[in-house]
Amino acid sequence: MRNPLVLAAALIAACASTAAPPRSPAPPPARTTPPPAASLDEATVRATGLTLAAALSPCDQDKVTALLDRPALRALIEARAPGDDALALVELFVSTGAVKLCAWFDDPVEVRLLRVRDVHGVRQALIRKVSAAGVGYFDVRVSVGPDGPRIVDVYSHNNGTWLDQEIADALLLSGAEDPMVGVTTMQVNALDDAGKPADALAALDTLPEATRNTRAIQSWRVAIAGRISPTAYAQAAAERARRFPDDKPTPFAAMNRAFMRADFDEALHQLDLMDAEIGGDPLLDALRAGVIAQRNHPGDRAIAAALAAHAVVAEPELAMSHAVQLGIALAQGQWATAVTALDDLARQVGFTVPEATLSKMPNAASFLATPEYQAWRARHP
Fold this sequence. Notes:
- The protein is an alpha+beta fold.
- Among the domains are: 4-170, no CATH class; 281-379, Serine Threonine Protein Phosphatase 5, Tetratricopeptide repeat (Alpha Horseshoe).
- The protein contains 21 helices and 5 strands.
């Protein structure tokens, strides 16, 4: 029997958006036994997706548990990891699915249902998470049973995995029968939750080599390293690629890597792949605008400004679009446009940018000395 402590620790390991996923990107693969498409009307899937989004922002584990079809999810996990009693033992006390979902949706700024869409002939709810760590997209598979609509499984486009797949991977972790592996992984979680990612990474690296040489642990290393620095992230991603050279990152992970090495054309290509995979999102236009502005080829700032403006019109309450507009305006010395962006952030998003935050943006020092900014600050003390 595997150690239930290891499973519990692995389940609550946060999956940052920068994590390098273990499998090739693709639309959510079809489940082996999907419910008939006719049984999933759009209104039911939409209502369930909205309810889940509300339960995840912030995550209420009890509410998420009530939304899950736990027997169906457990059957999917056991099909991947048969003959293991650890799952049954942990499930007596907590929903493993709810714990993992709350880890995926750790500390969100916003969780939103984007749309209901057909995937392999089955209607699924597409949910977007925005957090300080970045953005994530998730397809939610819903079934309808005697107790009403329930969530059977969730697919992470960032990680390229289904919820049941990640739980099964935790069950199959090499060395899981060793109690010290469970103790160490709990220590790593505690350090990471305490805002000490460097210490968490050092603790994670004390695991036995056989345990470290797994996709789950190497992906976790990348996620933690992404909270340390771009250099640490790049090193962890390279280490994971060295250990698993046949794994292909999802577009989101590939975009992060390309951006960090200043390969902006490749980052834009990966954003196009992401866009095609999820069916479009104004937030991706805002990300494109930021990448193009960083690339800074002749004419790029005008293109970036147009993309950010398009994203603002499409989703006015999206803070990232206004922030990109502000950054471009500051870089170009367009003080009136910068003031408009600040006003839009305050009016449409409900966020008044502190001067300490503003002062860290490029060319902000010049802006802070202008009459335009002083007048704006007087209106927003």
